[in-house]
Design goal:
heterotrimer, A mainly beta, B alpha/beta, C alpha/beta, A: mainly beta, three-stranded antiparallel β-sheet, 0% helix, C: alpha/beta, five-stranded parallel β-sheet
Chain lengths: 47, 197, 601
Amino acid sequence: MTPTEKQSKLKCMRCGHEYTTSDDLIKVERACPKCRSNSVRRVGEKK
Amino acid sequence: MADEIRIGVFVCECGLNIAGFLDCGEVRRYAEGLENVVVSTVNRYTCADPGQQEIKKKIRELNLNRVVVASCSPRLHEPTFRTCVAEEGLNPYLVDMANIREQCSWVHSTDRKAATEKAKDIVRIAVARARLLKPQKENEIPVTDAVLVIGGGIAGIQASLDLANAEHMVYLVEKQPSIGGVMAQLDKTFPTMDCSI
Amino acid sequence: MKDVGRHPRIKLMTLSEVEDVSGYVGNFNVKVRRKARYVREADCTACGECATVCPVNKYNEYEVGLATRNAIYIPFPQSIPSSYVINMADCLSKDVITCNKCVEKCQKRCIDFDMRDEIVELKVGAVVVATGMDVYDPTRLDEYGYTRFQNVVTSLELERLINAGGPTGGHLVRPGDTKAPKRIGFIQCVGSRSHNRGNPYCSNICCMVTIKNSLLIKEHYPDTEITVFYIDIRAFGKGFEDLYERSKREGVRYVRGLPEHIEEDPSTGSLRLKVENTTAGCIEEHELDMVVLAVGLEARKDGDKIRHLLSLSQTSDGFLAESHPKLMPVDAPTRGVFLAGCVESPKDIKDSVTQASAAAARAGVILSSDKIKLDAAIAVVDKEKCTFCELCVQVCPYSAISASKQNKIAAHVTEAMCAGCGSCAAECAFGAISLRHFEDAQYMAQIEAALAENPQDTAIVFACNWCSYAAADLTGTSRLQYPPNIRIIRTMCSARVNEKFVMQAFKLGAPVVLVSGCHLADCHYMAANRSTVKRMDRLWSRLERLGIRPERLQLEWMSAAEGQKFARVMAELDERRSKVTPEEIEQTRKALEAADKKKVA
């Protein structure tokens, strides 16, 4: 399970924490590294 | 009128599990005031035989065509009440449940007033859904009495033998020229320390 | 094994692969390719004369390369069917008949170079997937020198070296110089339990395989010094701890710690390694004649084909996912398909047999009925409204919907394949697909009823039947308390939540909305909740564009066991709710009404 190299920007809708990840955003469960909430939104780069 | 919606709301006390924490009588009165609700009753244990008889009786007497049971989780008793109304000739999909136990009385056990208000809301939501429920038909399809087993290792072999011995036709497909899989390569196997083939 | 070959109700097809599967529970149509064997199975007596004249020598797969085989061969003496086979890629006569020695030698005249692959079509009511696993290839772990050092072998190679039917007749020798090894080391967890080398999971069998092999070696060669390097010994099965204790009594030494790397003494072929003994807290040096790598198991590299043909899903480790890890452990997410053995997860023989019998019993439930009932709550298409966009086809986890943009063919749901998640109904922008018994209008009515009185005090929670709604029930059963302002609306799957449900809730004055469902990997509809994730991203962007704080929409995954999490999330949600002012709610309502008007205009 190699993570994709692409970095995505995420923002937690619960605590506001912003971070980046190389995880697959659809296949891997998003959880804020600070508050563990799943209300994590993909921000930046518009499709 | 044939398509007039006639709903019966059956509020369950569940012994003291519900009645101990909220006012079932008030919920019943509130339910009876809702549009399309023809009758509302309170029962000690709606899932028990007397409770089910009450539902059937009301369907019969008042020509109910929708039933809302305000009691426990549908994950627990929806099948019970579906069977119950079906026995009275009503399509089993015309039942909805208002979960006023797991999601109300038990989680707001220190605030009787708030729990009662919430129970009324939950019933209102369920009645809103019940109005729009439609009878559904469960289709039946025929079954071919044969099974495909893919892989002839120990698991595929065991599954094939069990199914064949239970009188089913088995097609066992193996990629390699022989069945046996990895198991056939092993020497003695644990825990019995006997040979693998 | 023999019983399979002669059972009147088992049709055994070896050298065969499933090429295509269509249909659904009770009525699968399967195409199987039976590859040419070039030896007539029914006539071959396995006398072996043919192989004695075959001039070709190739890698023997069964002996994992410790021996050779001919181009015409029998995989192993007890093979079922008991018939030779020609590997045409190895045969000298693969294009033009140039050799023909075996044909001349065969008295039964059962070798036939003109055989061709055939396609067999089958109709079955159920499928058992028992395709097994791959054994981890440690060549990738260069530090242990497998393939560089001849006396580093895998546990599977050791099986052949100690097997009376193996290439050495059961005499344990090391491959480098065929001398009997006096000092053997076993290295555990090779390819397992490591995030950077191999696979992160425990392969389940390797501890017991090593313990078993150490006992077998001790039985035949009591003087052998055996050292096992391990992280933990996991001997949890019935009778397993006894074997572990017995192995220790026989003098096998267990050292807690894995060596970093192995060095070879080129003059003797012996191996040297250093290891931190974490129990004793010291560095140990070992010189060994042979090292056995206890290799783990991994998902089959060629497993994707079957997975796609049957619309199955895999867990993050690559093994196939079951319908439910506790309650439906042998049912695959596709109805009528069952899993048995290592294809589902690494397991030993006993567990494989147990699971296979369970899968057989589950399949038998279907096969023993003349007819089966389908759940009524499935998707149905209004063909008039369908615009052939194929979005529903893309989100259906079961491949139950077909449609064609190109040929303007409206969506069609194969009812027996639909499990009723409702993702298609949530995706369709034209209202052309709805889920029976869980229709849009019913949900809209529920939302309206929930917000009919004091909407500013109400938090709307969408909860999926299998996990988050069950978590809410568990919160109740556990008598955990949370604020009474929560109104829960049940969907079968979080993927049923149409974006318009959420927008409707905000329009009607809901201060906050929570969408919840099973953890991403635990979806009861394969991976339908991945669609939920995409919709949430879309919703958050949409809210932001409309000037509505996206933080008012929350998402949480909760398993049926997470009652405590549910209570905590509800308390937080209510806290968030209390901070939304009436002015903000009014602004939201206006913004959404304006947006609606724009759409109409």
